[in-house]
């Protein structure tokens, strides 16, 4: 049974409809990112799951039990939810130990002490139980907020932009560390972010929002390599679109020549479509008779980014050939893959 099910949820602020019929499933132990630009409704959904935002239609279930529907409303503190906020929300006048044990219902000092030791070890803060939040770094405070949320043994952990206050240099390491903690305890989590890079590192599954709806949900590879529309394609990374005509079950004709697909195309022979090509799915090589011309070049380390003009198009190409100069004529080819037609 899925840990969390969101079925056809609608929600509004006054007359402003913010969630317009959302469906989402989070399996046991799965980490799902709610991803999308500012104002698309990610936090509203997180708050609705937590019981802090009302819904006007639909239902939310945790471990099969409705926590909100047209007939039910279970209070926030009874939903088995742990929350981690962007600003950590620690109690400043309580020590690390007191923060972590706040709200933990365990009988006996020994049990509480064991729980505390366990949690401190889990988030690598052994020996720091007596400190106050202001005596810790941002990353350490974030770890206390995680320990506090986990001490309560939630069914679902909700994280609202938890990494945005962490120094960019340590952010990735911190994300992997927390991901490992969640994975090793098989904790289901929903994580709000507007950063696809954070979603790629932290989540198993991405739910990409577009104006109160989920445009596409799936793992990062699926959304990046098989986006169902341009909104998804563009949000996940740089894209080139080429006008193309399907000329066989696995072949299209384009400005840069005929291109073969590794898999059968999802369009009829003869139809006009747009072909999505990621910058690294295109390659260039110097060629006197080439039809493209390099108009910009940016060295990025192991690859070079070239802007190549061909016909009335400019293509963004990441090539492993590093020595091509601006103004050179180039032949453009594609690396073999399953073509995406939009
Ligand atoms: N308390 C509120 N009262 C009225 N409107 C609100 C309120 N909170 C959010 N909204 C509106 O609801 C919409 C969705 O907001 P929400 O915070 O869910 O977006 P978000 O995707 O989480 O954005 P961000 O990434 O900026 O946090 C926005 O248009 C916002 O202006």
From TrEMBL:
<dbReference type="GO" id="GO:0015697">
    <property type="term" value="P:quaternary ammonium group transport"/>
</dbReference>
<dbReference type="InterPro" id="IPR015853">
    <property type="entry name" value="ABC_transpr_FbpC"/>
</dbReference>
<keyword id="KW-1003">Cell membrane</keyword>
<keyword id="KW-0378">Hydrolase</keyword>
<dbReference type="GO" id="GO:0005524">
    <property type="term" value="F:ATP binding"/>
</dbReference>
<keyword id="KW-0472">Membrane</keyword>
<dbReference type="InterPro" id="IPR027417">
    <property type="entry name" value="P-loop_NTPase"/>
</dbReference>
<keyword id="KW-0408">Iron</keyword>
<dbReference type="InterPro" id="IPR017871">
    <property type="entry name" value="ABC_transporter-like_CS"/>
</dbReference>
<dbReference type="InterPro" id="IPR050093">
    <property type="entry name" value="ABC_SmlMolc_Importer"/>
</dbReference>
<keyword id="KW-0813">Transport</keyword>
<protein>
    <submittedName>
        <fullName>Fe(3+)-transporting ATPase</fullName>
        <ecNumber>3.6.3.30</ecNumber>
    </submittedName>
</protein>
<dbReference type="GO" id="GO:0043190">
    <property type="term" value="C:ATP-binding cassette (ABC) transporter complex"/>
</dbReference>
<dbReference type="InterPro" id="IPR003593">
    <property type="entry name" value="AAA+_ATPase"/>
</dbReference>
<dbReference type="InterPro" id="IPR008995">
    <property type="entry name" value="Mo/tungstate-bd_C_term_dom"/>
</dbReference>
<keyword id="KW-0547">Nucleotide-binding</keyword>
<dbReference type="InterPro" id="IPR013611">
    <property type="entry name" value="Transp-assoc_OB_typ2"/>
</dbReference>
<dbReference type="GO" id="GO:0015408">
    <property type="term" value="F:ABC-type ferric iron transporter activity"/>
</dbReference>
<feature type="domain" description="ABC transporter">
    <location>
        <begin position="4"/>
        <end position="236"/>
    </location>
</feature>
<dbReference type="InterPro" id="IPR003439">
    <property type="entry name" value="ABC_transporter-like_ATP-bd"/>
</dbReference>
<dbReference type="Pfam" id="PF08402">
    <property type="entry name" value="TOBE_2"/>
</dbReference>
<keyword id="KW-0410">Iron transport</keyword>
<dbReference type="Pfam" id="PF00005">
    <property type="entry name" value="ABC_tran"/>
</dbReference>
<keyword id="KW-0406">Ion transport</keyword>
<keyword id="KW-0067">ATP-binding</keyword>
<dbReference type="GO" id="GO:0016887">
    <property type="term" value="F:ATP hydrolysis activity"/>
</dbReference>
